Amino acid sequence: MHLLYLDDSGSVLNRDEQYFVLGGVCVPETSVRWLSHKLDEIACEIDPQTPTQVEFHAATILADHIAYAVFRRYNANDLTYFNCIEGRFYQDGGVMHGLAHRQTYNDRCTCPACLTRRNAR
Ligand SMILES: [Zn+2]
Q1: 111 CA to middle of ligand 1, Å?
Q2: Cα 105 to ligand 1 centroid, rounded to whole Å
Q3: What is the pLDDT of residues 52-107, one digit of tens each?
Q4: Residue ranges per structural domain of the chain
């Protein structure tokens, strides 16, 4: 089992935007205990008197950044943020499974999602 944190970027109602992105962070259930322990350690450093009062929104923030980086890559052809996360998408057999590009207008698209799927055929 995995925990999934999702966030979106873009607006379906905005006619100036061509893309709507749903981004997320997937954490294996077996890593939750380790992650929780690390966050407890950081909370103790931040507030040694009441570490349980420290709130983290790391997964939410990370999901937001992923959605924004992918949105910028597709909607504005801005690779600045996407290049920082591109190597982190789940891949298997040469196919980038953690990123999907749903479109029907360009069967020669060179984005990593389309390119890896086409090359795997
Ligand atoms: Zn594509």
Answers
A1: 4
A2: 10
A3: 888 877 767 788 888 999 999 999 999 999 999 999 888 899 999 889 999 888 99
A4: 2-88, 89-121
